[in-house]
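hey so i finally got around to running the thing on that chain from the lab meeting. sorry it took forever, my laptop kept dying and i had to restart like 3 times. anyway pasting the input first so we r on the same page abt which one it is
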Amino acid sequence: MLLDFQRLGWWKYALLAISLLTAAFLLLPILFIAALSFGSSQWLIFPPPGWTLKWYADFFADPRWLQSAWTSFQIAAIVTVLSVLLGLVTSFGLVRGKFLFRETLRALFLTPMILPVVVLAVGLYAFFLQIGLNGTMLGFVIAHLVLALPFSILSIGKALEGFDKSIEDAAVLCGASPLEAKIRVTLPAISHGLFSAAIFSFLTSWDEVVVAIFMSSPTLQTLPVKVWATLRQDLTPVVAAASTLLILLTVILMALFALVRKGLKS
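ok and heres what got predicted. didnt touch it at all, straight out
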């Protein structure tokens, strides 16, 4: 017996209402934080009694906040480059390699995505204490790279699986070396995967707080750690301003990702 879907037309309105409520539930806290960053009160009070840019001025006038933001950017930039390079090499091996336990190795590379972050953070902290990397820039980069690499492998691997290898083989038959064919033919064809890997790797490092708390030291803190530490001491609206800037950069990068990905596909 066929269902009369015309009688079920009200379902689309119910689904629309549920979607709007879900979006509001996810977005309202972000909007509240943004509003608090412009509030004139020296405490986090909503609704704000007035509006001001004082807290953003305080943020950019405080060298400690700027130093933590610069540290976050440096780490994220290095992690992005390493993640894309290592993800590219690893993806070639996993997609085109013919060896035993290939799928097991793939699952091992993706383990940081499903492992509880706090467990990974404690493990890295204990290991880095033994080898003297805790509280160092190198330790930060390695720890964040562990978290970012799975995103690169997924993005680049998916793009590589969708690429017709016969095109690369044709370039080799026309006289190009295997390496030259990969650089001049394959890499441009999977550029959308490389770009996705770069964006997600940067955001993974830029927003990371749990692992960063374990890796940080009094002289080396990322911006999310600085926000967390300041919240424990003082509920100043500067924290809301810093959080809003974190969110703003994330939104800008995601919008750029959408635009560039659309351009690459067209």
